[in-house]
Design a protein that fits this description.
Layout: H1 2-29, H2 37-53, H3 58-78
Helix pairs in contact: 1-2, 1-3, 2-3
């Protein structure tokens, strides 16, 4: 169970950072973002969080998943599971 909690936390961290990076890069490069390779890469990584919630709610979705996975991991660790 601890491995599953850690995996969910890692997935949420990757999605959260990809969404934030895509947003910041989009602000910096402006209208040229559609042809930018790095923006496209971040868009592909962040897409699983866009599909269920839409672009507007991708960051809160990833942040909420991260908080839930962190709370679950803490609960498992306090419950006696072997923690690192």
């Amino acid at each position: 169970m601890l491995l599953l909690a850690s995996a969910l936390k890692l997935i949420a961290e990757i999605g959260l950072l990809a969404c934030l990076g895509r947003g910041l890069l989009g602000l910096v490069i402006g209208a040229r973002r559609e042809g930018n390779f790095l923006y496209g890469l971040l868009d592909v990584v962040a897409r699983p969080f866009d599909l269920p919630a839409g672009r507007r709610w991708a960051i809160p979705l990833a942040g909420g998943l991260w908080l839930a996975a962190t709370a679950w991991k803490i609960q498992l660790c306090l419950g006696g599971a072997a923690c690192r």
